[in-house]
Design goal:
By secondary structure, this protein is an alpha+beta fold. The chain has one domain: 3-Layer(aba) Sandwich (Trna Endonuclease, Chain: A, domain 1), CATH 3.40.1350. It is about 40% helix and about 30% strand. The chain is built from five helices and five strands. Helix 3 links the parallel strand 3 and strand 4. Helix 1 crosses helix 2. The longest helix has 18 residues. It is globular and about 40 Å long. The N and C termini lie close together (about 10 Å).
Amino acid sequence: MKYEAITRNIIGCAMKVHSTLGNGFQEVIYQRALAIEMQKQNINFQREMEMTIFYEGFDIGTRRVDFFVEEFIMVELKALTKIEDVHLAQAMNYCQAYNLPVGLLLNFGSRILEFKRVYNLNHPENIEYTKNNPSILKSNKS
């Protein structure tokens, strides 16, 4: 996919944070450490950016995204024992609500870093890809 290189870089930063801190901290600790690591890698981001959620063109509220990277990638952090389907669905919904092509769900709470790339299958940049790769419709996981 188009954003594979930058998402790989973000995941690499998250792996460095997880290998340094391990699991067991609150989400905000990982968020601060990831910000430092992404700055070191010259990755452009905004932290806790408030974004508007639209429903059929109507502004229905806002939500803070943990990281908004390079103006097109949403990064949602968790510090849970295990990512559940509801967390994956939440990340996918954020991509759709913000009309972003791709997002990452990073979980620092497990023994090893868990990460999932999520795609907004309705985003114009992904339409052609999903046509040529119908298996992504069945499995939207990394």
